[in-house]
Amino acid sequence: MMLAIMNAKYNAPYQFEPLLPAEALQEPLLAKAHDLTRAATRLAGQSAPVELRALLRGMNSYYTNRIEGQHTRPSEIEQALRKDFSANLDLAKRQRLAVAHIDTEAAVEQRYQGIDGAHRLYSPEAIGDLHRELFARLPAPDLATAEGGALTPGVLRKRDVTVGKHVAPVRASVPAFLQSWAAFYGNVRRGEAAVLALAAAHQRLGWIHPFTDGNGRVMRLHTHAVLTGLGYTGGLWSPLRGFARSTDRYFALLADADAPRQGDLDGRGNLSEKALAAWIDYVLDVCLDQVQFMGGMLNLSTMEHRIAACLAFEEHTLKSGVRGEMLRPLHYLFVTGGELDRGAFKAMTGLGERTAINALSALLVRGLIRSDTPQGKVRFAFPHHALRFYFPALWPEAEAEAGA
Question: ∠ at Cα 98 (377, 83), nearest 5°?
Answer without folding.
Answer: 55
